[in-house]
Amino acid sequence: MKRSSQSNEHRKKRTKTYHCSKERVGGSGGGGNFQVQANMSGVMVTCTRSKESRSQKEVIDLFEEYAKKLYSNDDDSKEKDNNEEEEELDLEAQVAKELAELKQPTKDNKQSLFSNISTNMDCVLFIKTRSPVEPVSFVHKILTDLKEEKKQRTRYTSRFLPVENTCHANLNAIEKMAETMFKPKFENNSKSFGVICRIRNCTKLDRMEVIQKLASVVGEGHRVDLENPDLSIIVEICQNICMMSVVEDFNELKKYNIESILGLNDNGPPPPKNKSKPKPEESSVEKE
């Protein structure tokens, strides 16, 4: 009987252990496979390990706050048009319209500007955006405000990397996407640029080959400058998908690292020096 009670206690302890570890399943808060697909725009987010779900919530809350500030006029104009349209409808038509809307339970989800797409990776989220949100200018605005205000808005989030577009992770697809993306940004005047490429969980591509291919797409008349470029080409390759964007102020905004912008990664001032002279015995011990 004693063995039976001891085994039951052991099972209870093991159950608690599995329950705690379950928080890490599905790194992007939701589990499943890597679900980012080609032709998506959004923001790649890096965060604290095992805090993906909390990071997801605080990031979407922050994004929705900024979307309300930046795009509220667009929503107001749409709402005004809808109200005017409803005023023109008679009572019977309004009832029919409301019934039709009730038959579409997924409408609210479709209208959401931000949605989390599973990456199934630790510390990495992908927040898909919908028009009118433009990821590059949207993220730049948030980070610029953080730099000016020095006010911490997130606790578990480290970096925002805007994603203008995605494609399959092969050189031909990457080159084709780059040609479309680079043309309006490099066609006028000579610009300096840098390519920042990171590859995660993908063995079929070589980092330097990707960088050289993108530099060739930029073309002549522009120069490479990794210290202070006019434009930075950000490339994140995860499994079978390539995420890319062309951004400004990448180095000035601390490589889009939130913690560095706020000075949270600084070592801080050096400790004050002890003005009192050490005793001879203490000094000799320190030297040894």
Briefly characterize the structure.
This protein is an alpha+beta fold. 45% of the residues lie in helices and 18% in strands.
Gyration radius, in Å:
26 Å
For the residues shown, what is the average pLDDT?
A: 82
Task: Point out poorly predicted stretches.
Answer: 13-30, 105-109, 280-288
Which fold name is given in CATH as the topology? VC0802-like
The H-and-E topology, N to C, reads as: HEHHHEEHEEHEHEEEHH
Largest sheet: 5 strands, mixed
CATH architecture descriptor text: 2-Layer Sandwich
Q: Quickly count the domains.
A: 1
Structural classification: alpha+beta
Sheet-strand content, in percent, reads 15-25%
First-last Cα distance: 61 Å
GO molecular function: RNA binding
Keywords: RNA-binding
Biased composition (Basic and acidic residues): 278-288
Region (Disordered): 1-35, 264-288
Protein architecture, described:
- The structure is a single chain.
- 45% of the residues lie in helices and 18% in strands.
- With 288 residues, it is α+β, with helices and mostly antiparallel strands.
- It has a single domain (25-264), classed as 2-Layer Sandwich (VC0802-like).
- The strands form 2 sheets. A 5-stranded mixed β-sheet has the order 5-9-8-6-7, with helices on both faces.
- α7 (207-218) links the parallel β6 (192-200) and β7 (223-224).
- The termini are far apart.
- Residues 13-30, 105-109 and 280-288 have low confidence and may be disordered.
